[in-house]
Amino acid sequence: MEGTKRGSVSAAVLILAAVLARPAVAGATIESDGFFLIADSGRDQVHAARDLDGNGVIDGATPGEVELFFDGSGVEVTLSVPSHLTVDPEGRIYLLDGGSLDAVFRLEDKNGDGDANDPGEATVAYDSSGDGPKAGTPNTLVSLANGALLYSDDGSGKSHLALLEDLNLDGDMLDPEEWRIVFDSTNASGVPVEAPQAIAVGEDGTVWVADGATGTILRLRDEDPDGTYQQPGEAVVWRRYSEEPILADVQTLALDADGRLYAANEETGTIDRMEDLDGDGNAEGTNVAVLVLDDSVRTRPRSPRDMLFLEDGALYVIDANADTIFRLEDTDGDGIYASDGEVEAIVVTDGVFSTPGCLAWVAKEGTDPGPGPEPALFVRGDANSDDSINLADSLTVLNFLYLGGSTLDCEDAADVDDDGGLNLSDPIYLLNYLFLGGNAPLPPFETRGADPTEDGLGCGDET
Question: Domain residue spans in the chain?
Answer without folding.
Answer: 26-363, 391-462
